[in-house]
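I had to read the description of the data format several times before I understood it. Each protein is reduced to its one-letter sequence and a matching series of backbone shape codes. The format is easy to grasp once an entry is in front of the reader. For illustration, here is how one protein appears when written out as sequence plus structure tokens:
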Amino acid sequence: MILNIYTFLTYIMDIFYLLNSPFCHQMSSRSFFIAGFKMPLCARCTAIHIGLLLGYLFHLLFMRKENQCICLLSLILFNVPLAIDGITQLYGLRESTNEIRLLTGTLSGLSFGLVIAYVIEAFNNEHKDLKLELFNTTLMKRQAHVAISSEILAYLIIYVGVLSNSLLYLIYISLYLTISSFLHNIIVPIYIMVAMIKCIKT
């Protein structure tokens, strides 16, 4: 019975691996494992998609302000750690760890989640204009608190699954990552491009 469950789950995970293969290298050495199964995305990509989700949630819960804007400095600072981690590893200067990939990926995903949520809300609200600022102290302080909370939540989300070895948890998070991959690599870019074209025409 147990063998049948694992055989069935192996087929399911193979489908997840196939669906996510266009979006990630899926290297085993750079991936988290739950119950002996590799997750469908590498540690960094997994973290980015968790960060995106947290960005949307924090935007809805705490950051829907009329005076909100896109702070370019925050966007840059939130992505610098990921860039440094990726580039130094790419050129053989150091070898990263999955914990660092989780940290930097979550921060990057969070920044884009906050921006995407704000942009989509602005496109859907005719009375709200997009605001772009290089520096905004109030917003940066708020985003710093959100970033700390997001890192804690991301570690909990991953390590609850890793330590529990729950097959059900593996299925749920694999399903989310697969949906998020298609959403953010295909649907969201197309939506934003179409919305921008409409804005330019009007």
Q: What stands out?
A: Residues 138 and 160 are 33 Å apart (CA to CA). The chain has six helices and four strands. Residues 2-201 form one domain. The first strand starts at residue 33 and ends at 34.
